[in-house]
Amino acid sequence: MKALVLKRYGGAGNLELSDVPRPLVKPDEILVQVHAAGLNPVDNMISKGMFKPIIKLKLPATMGSDLAGVVLQVGSRVSRFKAGDAVFASVFDLGVGSLAELVAVPESAAAHKPANLDFVQAASVPMVGLTCWQALQERIQLRPGQKVFIPAGSGGIGTFAIQLAKHLGARVGTTTSTANLELVRSLGADEVVDYRKEEFERVLENYDAVLATVKGEGLEKAVGILNPDGALVSLVGPPDAAFARARGMNVLMRFVFGLLSRKIRRLVQRRDARYSFMFVRPDGRQLAEIGELLQRARLRPVIDKVFPFAQVQEGLAYLEQGRARGKVVVQMVQGWQGTAKST
Q1: CA-wise closest residue to 284 among 74, 87, 86
Q2: Is the peptide bond before 238 cis (omega within 30 degrees of 0)?
Q3: Is there a single domain that holds both residue 258 and residue 313?
Q4: What is the pLDDT of residues 320-331, one digit of tens each?
Q5: Is 211 in contact with 149 (CB distance < 8 Å)?
Q6: Which terminus of the chain is more exposed, N or C, with fewer CB under 10 A?
Q7: 3-class DSSP state for residue 201?
Q8: In the chain, how many domains are there?
Q9: Per-residue pLDDT tens for 261-287?
Q10: Range of the domain at 326
């Protein structure tokens, strides 16, 4: 079978579509024929080696995190799925990749595909959906009436996070370019700053939380709009010592991450707020809850471009430009739009 394989670290030049063995299915896994796979910025970061200290890959390794497809086989201990079910899942950080024709997925990471979504739409959801769910619900514990700032509102994370925050009853502020103002407003954003014309830190104030999706000085500027007792949760770093402890990393790495995050933590502490770095984890139960909201049209996928599997490297190059409106998806199986059983 074909898979997008990372031969060695160093960037897209070290990725290649290769023939790899068919996966062997463990007792707690399902074998999925992948119909579509979502691309994420972390895919490019991993191939460059930026996550080597955190994610231990055994090279050559299959790339990708998000998938939607049809179950071909189930392991002996699997109880929630059977052959023929349409599913979606994130396999991020599980030692397996989604950019392949067949993937062995742990049962605990998968959920039934919402029946109202096709495979391309479903494949766009898992990583951004779980990231937003875990950041807004678990880490920030966002409550109705609170204000949350979600920069880069037209991106993959932003388009989903705005919708989920509104579903949770929050008021949402965001940034975007002139061309995407109407898109983010249609998703529910209350305060929208055109970053080409204004600086968000001069416009926005009194926010209870920030979901940081943009690196650099924008992260530090976001501290200035936080209320006391507010929370800044970063998806882009810098990682902190608490993250290193949660990953079971050694004392040296805890010290290094503590140093890397010292500046931003001090800035946040001066506001009497709190900082944390978050790494998404696969969770099929949470994904099922997200799927229910999608099924009820409380949330909707936003997809920019779809690339055929043969052009997956072009898709990653496009994503790296940072201009996608919503998600970029790779389609493996053409023309099948979700007719398999979904519930």
Answers
A1: 87
A2: yes
A3: no
A4: 998 899 999 999
A5: yes
A6: C
A7: helix
A8: 2
A9: 999 999 999 999 999 999 999 999 999
A10: 2-125+301-331
